[in-house]
Structure formats: structure tokens, C-alpha cells
Amino acid sequence: MAASKVDPIIAEYGKPNKKVYRTILRAIERYDKIAIFRHIKPDFDAMGTQMGLYYWLKGNYPNKEIHFLGDNHVSFTPRLFPETENLPESWFKENKFLAIIVDVGDEERIADPRWKKAAYKVKIDHHPCKKEIAKKATLCDLSMAAAAELCVDFLLNCKGKVMPPIAAENFYIGLVGDSGRFLYSSTSPHSFAVASALIATGIDISSIYKKMYEKDIDSLKSLAYVLANFKVSPHGVAYYLLPKEAQEELHITPELGKEHVNTFSNVRGINAWCSITEDPNPKDYCWRISIRSKEKDISGIANKWEGGGHAQASGAKIKDLTKLDEFIADLDALFA
Q1: What's the confidence (pLDDT) of residue 4?
Q2: DSSP string, 50-91
Q3: 3-class DSSP assignment, residue 222
Q4: How many CB atoms lie within 10 A of CB 62?
Q5: 285-305: per-residue pLDDT in tens?
Q6: Proportion of the chain above pLDDT 90, given as a percent
Q7: pLDDT, tens only, 186-239
Q8: Domain covering 8-212 assigned CATH 3.90.1640.10 in the classification
Q9: 151 with 56: CB under 8 angstroms?
């Protein structure tokens, strides 16, 4: 499996990042033990980037010990991704290891706190953050459609290395997932150049899409519930609520509450759309909100409501439904 020629768009983008690319690559080559971390409640990009990097490292450094950590996903594992490893505490105490943290802005969002025990830390991400996790080796670009896109750019600029097809498949899932199948405004010529490089490894994108978006009967029933219960604000904000009782009736978990949020993406007169799902976890009881938008930047609204994210895809939360009208009014005002 020979290293392929780098696309001119990818090569050009990588020029300003050469210093941090060298820093990260040196760290990878310096440590024999590497653990890859990502954010809690993972999505396609978090798990795709994590597993893509895992397989890339295994393919290019077969003698290194590589691990991936974090919570499993209620639907993606083991259907799309292998179940997360459960490393004993002794591994972190006895081993001088490198932590690579992907698709995470701030440290409170990292799924496993043991990243703090690493001898050296690297971060690859596309989110704004309050405080850097890895000051010496941070690769962050808010313009990237996905963390997978940025990570692949770095890897393709590593001379003499190869992109194993299994790594490419996982990275492609991450890129497709966070770009909304290349529909969000964050999609750029660079996004397509990265996609092209991944496809060139021989991956079957038809099979990938089938695995990513395959549904079951319970999913159809939850979609029927959404369509029967959604509301639309005066200026085109569509939203639906999934209280605990509805989740139990539909046999879904809070993590699947946002599964149908993009049902409203191509409806004339709807400018933004949200899923609002009750999370009855006693440690952090709240209603979790996934927000999407056609054109306007909704990240400011998300930040106001204890969340954050990207211009057209963000998350937020409210403590209880007494705040729902105020939240919807804030979002509705963007389109007044």
C-alpha cells in the first residue's frame, strides 16, 4: 500500500500548519503508547475521527500500543464502530503515554478524565474553546466542516505514510456526519478534496451511507410521533419535544432524541429546527436541544443557553420547560 500524491488543495492548506504538523508527528513517533480520546455523547465525527486515527496509527506504526477511550453510543456501537476499550487504572499509572484528543473544545467535554495522566497531549479539533487543553500541540480550525477533515489533512501531509482503507472509511463517516452530507455552509473545496482522497483508497461509500443511515421500525414510529407533535414559531423555527414518557413509549433513549431533527431541513418556510429531549439523568437533569439552521448563525444562541457548536449545527440545554418559550423566542428573533 503506497503513499499517494497529496491533492494540491490539501497541500496548500497544510503549508501554514507545517510547524504544528511536525510537532504532532514527532509526539506520535516519540511515544510507544498512545490513547485517543473524544467528547461525551459521541456523534459521527467524534467516533469517526477517533477510530480513523486509531486505524491510521495501527497501519503506520504496527509496533505501537494504541487504545481508544470514551462512552459507547446507543446506536453506533457496535453497528458502526467497535465497543470502546475498558483500560484498567494500572495502564495509566504504569505507562508513559501520549493522549490525542479529537473533536473536543473544552476539557469538561472529554469522555474519559484519564487524559490528564498523559505525559504529553495533542488536540485536533474544530470547536471554539475557553482554555486550551494541549498548548504545545493544538491543531484547531473553526472553518473545518469536521474534525475528521482537519485530522485527515494533517495525516495526508505526513510524508511517506499511508491511509489504510479502514481508516479512510471511519474518517469519511466523520466528515459526512458533521457536514450534513456536505449540505452545511462549512463544506468547502477542501472538504471535497479530503473526501476525494479518502474515496481514492477504495472505500465503498454506498455501503457506508447504508450503515450510517439505516433505520428500524421503532425509528419510523418515533418519526411519526415527531411529525404529529412538532410546532413552528412565527418566524419559522420548527421544534419538537420528547419527554421521558414519549421516549419510553417509543422505545428510544435520550441519545436518540435528535435522530429526526433534520426532517425539517428542506421545508419551505422553516429557517431553523430543533429537537428538545428530556434527559432524566439525576446528576444533570435537563432538556437537551439540538439546533440546526439553513443560513443564520445559531451558535450565539447556543452559547447563551449553556451550549455551543457551529454556525448551522449547535447544541444547548434548558433546565426545565419554564424556559422553553424564552429559548424559542431568542431563536425566532434571528429570523424576524
Answers
A1: 57
A2: HHHHHHHHHHH-TTSEEEE-SPPPTTTTTTTSPPPP---HHH
A3: helix
A4: 8
A5: 899 999 999 889 999 999 999
A6: 80
A7: 999 999 999 999 999 999 999 999 999 988 898 999 999 999 999 999 999 999
A8: yes
A9: no
Same fold flag, 8-212 and 218-333: no
d(CA 310, CA 227): 26
Kindly state the cell numbers that stand for 143: 472553518
Please state, in angstroms and rounded to a whole number, the distance separating the CA atoms of residues 276 and 273: 10
Q: State phi, psi for 100 to the nearest 5 degrees.
A: -110, 120
Closest Cα partner for 139 from 119, 116, 122? 122
SS3 content of the chain, % helix, strand, coil (to 5): 45, 15, 40
CATH class of 218-333: alpha beta
Domain range summary for the chain, segments of one domain joined by +: 8-212, 218-333
**What global pTM score does this model have?**
0.86
- The pLDDT tens digits of the residues spanning 114-136 come to 999 999 999 999 998 888 888 78
Tell me, what amino acid is at 276?
Answer: I
* Residues 265, 271: Cα–Cα separation, whole Å: 8
Phi/psi of residue 288, each to 5°? -90, 135
